[in-house]
Write a structure and sequence with these properties.
2 domains; mainly beta; binds calcium ion; 12% helix
């Protein structure tokens, strides 16, 4: 009987692990095949070889690009080069990314930028850039003021908080207030890998301001990109391993109310709610993480690879 019990238990564990492996591969899209969709006028941006994880474009066409992310378990083509913020003028005929200098006193050697978000103060048109940073793989948010005439960022402050242990992206609500996603629950790398493998829905969205910090949404498999709707009423959260986009209403007290979930799987159905304008199998771009449009021009960034600039066709 003892032997039979052991065999039964081993069988149950193996069945569980096998089922988790199958589900994990599904979430990662490991077996998905891609039918390429091309755009006629595309080129890779010069000078970006080691990531362009996040992009934010100002209304005047100046794009900030977060470059050179180093992240546990993810390839880096420039492991010894600190990350940087690049500026790209989308109104140029042939835009070229230019690195922004950072004011003295900020530790540029450990700069490891991830998600970014701009905020314009309408009182004086000051542009603030909020940057998720991972110095020594920790999580902070750096607040910079953009000094356009000097192609520079002036560092104003560093924000750290216990509710922000694994920040991925953020969307600014003020010069030092924002919604941010934590992409893992655990900070320990073994536990955070296990969390991902088991498909636990333990990641969340935090609202941060100097006066108040609170969890405003939870139960995401891996909360990742976050943004605000153009009318400023809704927050969008991409759950990459949940394979969906969550739409949440912003309330006056900064709490969020879930409105709907957009399943990205419907992309190939008869009535797709998402249109694919560009699809590549990795021969041009690998690990794309962000896409922005300005004046019919598309900018696609990647976690660790290059960046693509395309002209969109009229739909
Ligand atoms: Ca962002």
């Amino acid at each position: 009987m003892g032997k039979l019990l052991k065999i039964t238990l081993v069988g149950i564990v193996l069945a569980f692990v096998g089922e988790r492996i199958v589900r994990f591969r599904e979430r990662m899209g490991a077996t998905r095949t891609l039918d390429p969709v091309e755009l006629p006028n595309c080129h890779l941006l010069e000078g970006i070889e080691a990531g362009s994880e996040d992009i934010d474009i100002l209304p005047n066409g100046l794009a900030f690009i977060s470059a050179g992310l180093k992240y546990p378990g993810i390839k880096s083509f420039a492991p010894d080069k600190p990350g940087e913020i690049l500026l790209l003028d989308m109104t140029d005929k042939n835009p070229v990314p230019v690195p922004l200098t950072i004011s003295p006193g900020f530790d540029v050697d450990s700069f490891n930028p991830h998600g970014i978000s701009t905020y314009i103060d309408r009182k004086d048109d000051t542009v603030y850039l909020l940057v998720v940073n991972h110095p020594q793989f920790k999580s902070t948010v750096e607040v910079f003021k953009f000094v356009e005439e000097e192609n520079a960022l002036e560092h104003l402050k560093t924000i750290r908080h216990d509710l922000l242990p694994r920040i991925n992206d953020l969307v600014a609500m003020g010069p030092d207030s924002f919604y941010a996603t934590n992409d893992h629950y655990f900070t320990n790398s073994i536990m955070s890998n296990l969390e991902m493998f088991l498909g636990l829905r333990w990641t969340n969205v935090i609202y941060y301001s100097p006066k108040e910090v609170k969890e405003v949404a939870t139960d995401f498999c891996m909360a990742n990109g976050i943004n605000v709707s153009p009318d400023n009423k809704y927050i969008y959260v991409a759950d990459i391993f949940g394979n969906d986009i969550h739409v949440l209403r912003k309330n006056p007290d900064w709490s969020l109310t879930p409105v709907k979930v957009i399943r990205v799987q419907n992309i190939l159905s008869e009535k797709p709610i998402v249109t694919q304008v560009y699809v590549n199998n990795g021969s041009v771009l690998q690990g794309s993480s962000v896409a922005c449009v300005y004046d019919k021009k598309l900018l696609v960034g990647t976690v660790f690879h290059r960046a693509l600039y395309c002209e969109l066709e009229d739909q």
